[in-house]
Amino acid sequence: MNFKIQHEMKGRIRVHLMQNIMTFQQADLLQYYLRSFHNIKETKIYVRTCGIVISYNGNRKSVLDALKQFQYSKFQSPSTAIEDSGRKLTVKYQERLVQKTIIHFGAKIFLPYQLRALWISLRAARFIYKGLCSIAKKQLDVNVLDATAIGVSIFRGEFKTASSIMFLLGIGETMEEWTHKKSVGDLARSMSLNTSKVCLIKDGQEILVNTTDIQPGEQVIVRMGTVIPFDGNVISGEALINQASLTGEALPVKKECGGYVYAGTVVEEGEITLNVKAVSGATRYEKIVKMIEESEKLKSKVESKAEHLADRLVPYTLLGTAVVWVLTRNVTKALSVLMVDFSCALKLAMPISVLSAIREASKYKITIKGGKYLEAIADATTIVFDKTGTLTKAKPTVKAVIPFGESSADEMLRIAACLEEHFPHSMAKAVVHAAKKKGLDHNEMHSKVEYIVAHGIVSSIDNKKVVIGSHHFVFEDEGSTIDESNQEKFDALSAEYTHLYLAIENKLVAVICIEDPLREEAPDVIKSLRKLGINKVVMMTGDSERTAAAVAKIVEVDEYYSEVLPEDKANFIEKEKQSGNRVIMIGDGINDSPALSAADVGIAIRDGAEIAKEISDVTIAANDLSELVTLKRLSNHLMKRIQNNYAAIVGINAYLIVLGVGGAIRPTTSALLHNTSTLMISLKDMQNLLPHS
Asked: Are domains 3-77 and 365-393+518-627 of this chain identical in fold?
C-alpha cells in the first residue's frame, strides 16, 4: 500500500493513502487488519479524505511496515468482522445534520418573507397533525405541546419562532435516532455469532472444522452448553434450546427430530444433529437488531421514569399557560410558559445518556444488553465470583499426567482430550491444548458423550465405560475405586494443583494435574469494587475446601463456599435478593448459567462457555478483571449524570418560565433558550463518562 506521512508525534502518526476514493468496506477491512497488531492502540480512518490516524506503542517502523504490506485484494477477514460496521450509518446522520442546518439558515438568507412563511407553514403541518392524532387518542403528550407551541406561533405570525422550534426539534430527533441506532448496532455486532469450530459428521466420523468451511446441506452435531452456529433442521436427538437472544424468552424450548433451530441460540441440555440450511451471519445480525429494538431491555427504570414524568408534565404545562393568560390577559407571557416545557428535555436526555454509556462500554470490550443492567450495577451491594476462569486465569495449564495403570501418561492424556474437546470449559480446553502441544492426534474413538453439569463426562471406549471429572463425581457418584497398590501414590498427589480424575470400568487410571493460577489483578479489583459501593464479596466454587480457602485468603473475600453445585449458586443469589440486596454474578462456565440468570446482573468473562455469554446480561471480552472496576465506575457515573440532568432540566426551564412570565424575555427567546439548553444537555450526554476512553 502506498501512503504519505502528513504529521507525526511520539506514539501517533497521520498518513494519507495514495488512492482517489475509499469505500466503507475498504475502511472496515483496513481497520480490522490494523487492529490485529498488538502495538497499535487505536486507529481512526477518514473515508472522505483517505486518511488514517494511528496511535501506537513502541516501534514506529513496525507500524509503517504493516501499512506497506497491506493490500485490499490479498487480506481476508471474517465476514462478520466488517459486516454492518456502523461507518456508513455515521456518515448518513452527519450528512443529515449538515443538510438540516444548511436548509434552515439558507432559507432565512435566500427566501423572500412570503415564501419562507408558506414553507414554514407547510412544515408545521406535520407537527400539528401529530398533535391532533394524540388528542384523538385522548393523550396529552409532548406532540400536543409541540403542536400547540408551533401552531400558536404561526397564528400570531411569528414564523421565525415556529421555524426555530421545528429546527431544534428536528436536530434533537436526528441526534437521538443516530445515537440509538449506533448503540443498537454496536450492541448487536458484539452479540453476533462468533463460533470458530463445529463438529461435522463426515463418513460416519465427527471432525472438528472451522465454521467457515461448512456448506448448506452438511450435518453438524451441537452439544450441551454450545451455541448453535447455523440455521437448520434437527435430524436426530433432542435438546432444550435457550432462544433468549432472539425471542427474549427466558424458558428454554424443546427441539427434536423435525424441529427447526436458529443460529445464535444455545443448547442448554441434550444434544442434536442438524442439517445446515443457512450459513450466513447476516440473518443472525438482523434478528438481534430486531430483538434489541423491540425489547424493553434497553429501558432502565430511570429512562421509564423520565418518559412517564415527561408525559405527566404536559397537562400542567398547558394548564400553566392558561392560568398565566387568565391572570395577565397577556398572550406573550402565556406563550412564555408554553414555549418552555420540561418534557422535551427529559425524554431526549435520559435515553441518550444510557445509550451513550452502552456505546462507551463497548470501547472497553464490554457488551451490555440493556440500560437497566447499568442501573442495577450502580445499585449493587453484593458481588458473587465463580473461581475457575474468573478469579483465576482463563487459561489453566496441564502440569502433569499421572497414570495409575499400565497405560502411559500420553495415552491417558489422549483419551482425556478426546472426551474433553467437545465441551466449552477452561479445564477442558487445558486438557485439549496439552494433547495438541504433544502432537497426540486422535480419531473419535468413543461413543455418545454425556456431560453432567459441574461434575464430569461419561462415555465408552471399546465397550468400556469411561468417566472423567471431579473427585466427588468419579469416586462418589460413579463409585470408582483406587487399586490398593496405588493408594500411597494417590495420597502423595500435590495439593497445589486442581485434579481431574480419569477412570475406566470404575478403576482410576490417571490423574491430570492442572495449574490454575490466580489473576494478579484480582485482589486489587476486589478492593476497588469495595470503594465503589460493593459491601459484600462472595466466592463460590466446585473445587475442594482446601483450594477454595487458599484463594479466598489471598483475594480477601467476605465469604466463600466450596464444592457447590450450580443450583447452590443460584439459591444463594435468590436468598441475597430476598434480603433486599442487588446482586452481581460473575462466571464463565456452563455450571454458572443458573446463577447468571438468577442475579440482577449476570456477567460472563472472556473465553467462557457460549451458554454463559448468551444468558448473561453483560459480557467482558477483555483479558483483564480490571474492566469490572471500569464497568462499575461507568455505571456509577451514569447514575450521577442522570441525577445532574434532572437538576439542570428543572432548574433551567423553571428559570426561563419565570423570566418569560415576568416579561424579561419574549416567547421567541424562551423557545430558543429552551431548545438550545435541551440540545446542549443532549450533546453533553453523548460525551464519554470516563476519561481517556
From this structure: no
